[in-house]
Automatic annotation (TrEMBL):
Name this protein carries in UniProt: 2-oxoglutarate ferredoxin oxidoreductase subunit alpha
Domain Pyruvate flavodoxin/ferredoxin oxidoreductase pyrimidine binding, residue spans: 185-339
A GO BP entry: response to oxidative stress
Pfam family, one: POR_N
UniProt cross-references to PANTHER family, sorted A to Z: 2-OXOGLUTARATE OXIDOREDUCTASE SUBUNIT KORA, PYRUVATE-FLAVODOXIN OXIDOREDUCTASE-RELATED
Alphabetized UniProt keyword annotations: Oxidoreductase
CDD domains, A to Z: TPP_PYR_PFOR_IOR-alpha_like (cd07034)
Amino acid sequence: MVIAICGYTGQGVETAGAILSEVLRANGRRFRTWRDFSTIIRGGLTSFEAYVDEDTGGEAPARLHAVDVAVVWDRQAAERYRDRVRHVTGLYGAATVDGVPNANRDVLDPVGFNLWALGVVACKLGLSPEDVQAAAMAHFHQRVNLEPLHRGYAKAAGSTSSGPVQASDAPDTAILSGNDALCLGAIHGGVRIYCGYPITPASEILEYMAAWLPEVGGRAYQVEDEIAAIHMAIGASYAGMRTFVATSGPGIDLMTEGLGYAATIEVPLVVVDNQRGGPSTGMPTKTEQSDLRHLLYAGHWEFPRIVLAPTGVVDCLAVIQEALNLADLHQCPVLVALDLDLALRRISVPWETVNDALMRVPALRGRTVLPPASVHGYRRFAAEDGGLPWRTVPGVRGGGYVASGDEHDERGWMEPDFQSVRPTLHRRRLEKVHCVRYDRPLTPVGSPEAPVCLVGTGAMGELIHAAVAAHPDLYRGVLLRQLWPVPADGLLAAVAGAREVVVCEYNATGQLAHLLATTVPDGGCRTVRRYDGEHYTVEAFLAALEAAGETLHGRVRG
């Protein structure tokens, strides 16, 4: 069943969604939520949708267009869902809303709308009123007027024939967003210090780290801006601590100077770009995957970097730990390309699945010398054996060195013979990511015999899964996790034999398709692109794929 609640920012639509999610989790129901909110702090339309599945195995279903029950506050909200409800009897709302059946209307106060809507959808989902009331009281931590909740439940009960659904005996589950999963993975991977600056949609990461790090002996700091955040992270990494920073497009602009500094002094650094619509302030609450070129090339110098992207919520648990490992192993910046849809969607996940994903990635520190070890004749940037240099941290006897952003020699001293160090030290820096030791660059989906291969990453992952499930004889998929360096051999093997390759992405210019065009055979890739800030539903995605198959528009050549 698919339910939706649509009101305005300030009416508590998100609160109703959070309470509903907790009741669904406690009842063992498998679900996935979608959140859409205005860039206006107060007054714009806000929607919460939940896709609930009786099946408790695997990940929750992708977003669907058809809605069974939609609860709306006014005419504008009703217009958003009028064409999406399966039947007009599934539309509920305030007494002033035209088009809502009379039996589904009620006289509502703006403040109590969210609880009334919660009562309606909870009843339709077969959740007991006692469970919903208990969850509401637990959420507010204080006395609250639950009369609208009971009225909403009664309103829906008048048109609901079936009784409450019995709680499932499914395994204990967690409710995770991409941001949640990234924070859990980082903490499990050894992060104990976090410095950040609020920016949508990465602000939750700062909030979660501030709440969770003290429980494991760590600290989170809200600093004055993104420039401070990245340089504090570099300092923490220089001191031997594992850390990362998270921001969005405008913040990445400001952090670019720090990326070059980290690359020059060869200090591990992980930066998460929680992508949203741009440029400039752009669409702060809408999704895009349009920062790829910036992540690949930003900086006024040539320096090595690795770019990863998770392909689902659960995947975030592992990818952030793998990013921390790769940063240590290669002593360079690793950028993680998240996107708003994946970051903010919430799904129900068995705790066993969460634990397995966390435990799958052991911490690897590479050539890092930690106290109380000591070294002799140490040259920080020397690599006599042809590999990476050994990195010391403060406290290692004999391991002190200068970490200068100026070009330097193997000791870290400035003003060397540039003609000597550029062909040697600089060349070594550039070449150290030519052989990235990463064992999950991509994941194939479906039958290798299917003629059309869909390639995507991030929020496109669940849509590709859905398309393959709907048409297994037509589509197969490749969920790309390592964006740079492009895993050419693995990608060629994954698309081998495909009649067509379709790259699916949330941007206007086909950035991922352009990146892959020189790798994919036969001249390039067809593309499916969206850049209006909205998320694809499964139905809209399948329609876009069908349209892409009927036209040469969008073909990208290397």
